[in-house]
Each structure stands twice: as C-alpha cells, then as structure tokens.
Amino acid sequence: MSNAEAIIVSCGDTSKYLIGTSAGKGTVTYKRGRDGDLMFFECLNTAKEALTQQGFTSAILIMDNPYDEMIGEEVSETSSHVISL
C-alpha cells in the first residue's frame, strides 16, 4: 500500500458509502464496479470490509452532509475522522 490512505465517504443524503484511496496531492480514486460506475456500499461495515480485503487497517471517514447548503446557509466544512478497520 506504500503511501496510500483508505477513504470512506458517508453520503449523508443517501445513507450510502463510497470507498477510495488517496496517494496524496488531494486526488482520490474511488472504487468502481465492472461496468465503470461508482460502487456504493449500503452500510459502513461492508465498506470497511472491502478496504480490509485490500490490506488497509485504518481509513479516513469523511462525513459529507449537504444540510447547510439545502437550507441556504453557508456550506460548512466537511468533518473527517480516522477509524480502525
């Protein structure tokens, strides 16, 4: 895995999760299915399991919630936390 970091994005408006990897420089490569479409995971545990199978032991969980934007407020910063897999 060298310098790659695992990423899990919580899609607050859909209750689904995306997983990806970041090798730095702000670029994230998200997991895609055979058809090329983004893979969504129905729960956090299945997202964590998919990353564990790739050899990761921790991930950055990004909580992406569009609520502020939906009610016309200034968009707040996304919160993120390192979690164990």
- Strand residue percentage: 35-45%
Average predicted confidence as pLDDT: 85
Q: Into which percent range does the helicity of residues fall?
A: 10-25%
Number of domains: 1
The residue ranges in which pLDDT falls below 50 over 5 or more consecutive positions are none
Pick out its properties.
single chain; 85 residues; alpha+beta; five-stranded mixed sheet; 35% strand; globular; DUF6482
Brief rundown of the structure:
InterPro entries: DUF6482 (IPR045508). The chain has 85 residues and is α+β, with helices and mostly antiparallel strands. It is built from 2 helices and 5 strands.
Describe this structure in words.
It holds the Pfam family DUF6482. By secondary structure, this protein is an alpha+beta fold. Helix content is 16%, strand content 35%. It contains 2 helices and 5 strands; from the N terminus they run E-E-E-H-E-H-E. The radius of gyration is 13 Å and the shape is globular.
Q: How do the helices and strands line up, and which of them pair or pack?
A:
Layout: E1 5-11, E2 16-22, E3 28-30, H1 44-53, E4 58-64, H2 67-70, E5 79-84
Parallel strand pairs: 1-4
Antiparallel strand pairs: 1-2, 2-3, 4-5
